Amino acid sequence: MIVEELAKEKLVLEQGGERKVVKDDGLLSYENPEEEEAPQQSENEESITVPASKSYTVAIIKPDAVAHGKANEIIMKIQDAGFEILAHEERTLTEEEARDFYQHKAAEVEGSAGVVPAWREFIGPADIEEARREKPESLRAQYCTQPPFNAVHGSEDSDQASRELAFFFPNFRTASVAEQQDGEEERVERTLALIRPDAARENRGDVLAQIHKSGFSVALQREVMLTEEQVRQFYLQHVEEDYFPALLRSMTSGPVLALALARTGAVKHWRSILGPADVNKAKEESPDCLRAQFAVENETINQLHGSRSQEEAEREIDFFFPKQRTLAVIKPDAMEEHKEKILEEIHASGFSVTQLKETVLSREVAEEFYKEHREKPFFGQLVEFMCRGPCMMLLLTKENAVEEWRAMMGPTDPDQAKETSPNSLRARFACDILHNSVHGASNEQHAAEKIRFIFGEICTEAEANSGDGQSDAIFSADTQNSNPGSPQMGENADAELPA
Question: What does UniProt list as catalytic (predicted)?
């Protein structure tokens, strides 16, 4: 099959024409009867199902290789090496980020990660010099141009492959053995879970343990103190109900823990383990459900929320985890040895690199950049260090970007980072508090100021459409009126409260 398809590929290169996707003979086609009369879908909207015996990974031919006309040559070498191309798409990335962190634990089978190490071996080390020295036949050794442009990308493991597939091929599915036997499939999706203040305060650990036990991955997490206005906005359709004053009191009595949960059939499964909305009914009919287990004495409001549909889940996730921008800096001490690894981990964590600039800061620019530390005793050392060599400025975009990047960096002191966040960048790559490898904005306002200082005025597509520049639906001063044409959060909210 590979030889036959390779011959076809050579004809494409020599004579032109359309390239067809190489498909496995065992590839199952997913047909939805309800969509038979729908308009013909584009290629990237077609549902792709892979048998349980097949493994998969994401391969990306990067812009530098495409710009130098090497894409077709690389594709031929991929096929010649025995890899099957199950789906392909050419696209220009915008500020969209990989919004899902999927883990296919329920569908994983023996051999599911086999193609990942094979592909990474084929493309070679991320460091260009290392690739040329140790793997001269690898794709990166042959086709990279200059750091950090190393021609191709490969998922590091099966979990990362799943997350990246969710971004580039959202309709890509893996059929488990059981699904192949009964013909049923479930898509990996996200849902919003809210742990209301009483349960968040008293039973947070137990609830999170139940979430993980049920096969969910916590893709995003945020603890937030809601105002009355924000609660009214989120539960808009419940405002006139008799129980709303009790709901309002409950939701504003302390911090709410918001979670974006991911797994196959997340919406349906989360609601099934929540149980009935009425607390008394939950205790009587489903005593093992989460709402019964974590009910608060003398409280009529249940302690856990779940989205009713995938569409509602995405709206609610956008409410609590709006897309944000933040500024990240790879400092001079990390540029030579760790830059490539840090950039790979940034992409693997779902950030979109919207802007990138490698520069040597002048003393004047460094002093202005760190002006808030001007009166600190370490200010002079910090400025001198930042001017010592090149650093890389990155504009990152992601849901909850500011907090996510700060969590990824870890504590400022690398010794503390090693104790509390051993997998963080600073724990692994920093030397001391001054030479701590990376920098990140402390909050949204700080991020906006630093982005403006480094990259100038940048208007996102979302800001252009909304006309206001506010990205955070929760903390915007005028969230209900910022985009009158968009659906109001809460119009289809979960009617999960005792009426």
Answer: 153 (pros-phosphohistidine intermediate), 305 (pros-phosphohistidine intermediate), 439 (pros-phosphohistidine intermediate)
| Residue 416: inside a domain | yes
Domain that holds residue 100: 2-182
Catalytic residue list contains 68: no
Find the mean pLDDT for residues 477-497.
33
Which of 238, 269, 305, 338 is labelled catalytic?
A: 305
Which amino acid is it at 12? V
Are residues 311 and 349 located together in one domain of the fold?
A: no
* Catalytic-residue membership of 153: yes
Angle among Cα 61, 63, 65 to the nearest 5 degrees reads 65
Task: Give the residue numbers of the binding site.
Answer: 331, 378, 406, 412, 426, 436
Percent of the chain whose pLDDT exceeds 90: 45
Is 0.85 topped by the overall pTM?
A: no
**483 belongs to a structural domain:** no
User: Could you count the other beta carbons within 10 Å of the beta carbon of residue 21?
Assistant: 15
Assess whether pLDDT exceeds 60 at residue 477. no
Tokens encoding 71: 């894409």
Distances (CA, A) of 423 to 129, 247, 261, 275: 26, 39, 22, 36
Contact predicate 260/314, CB 8 Å: no
The DSSP secondary-structure symbol of 80 reads H
Q: What is the pLDDT of residues 186-216, one digit of tens each?
A: 568 899 999 999 999 999 999 999 999 999 9
Q: Which segments are annotated as binding site for ATP?
A: 331, 378, 406, 412, 426, 436
Active site residue 305: yes
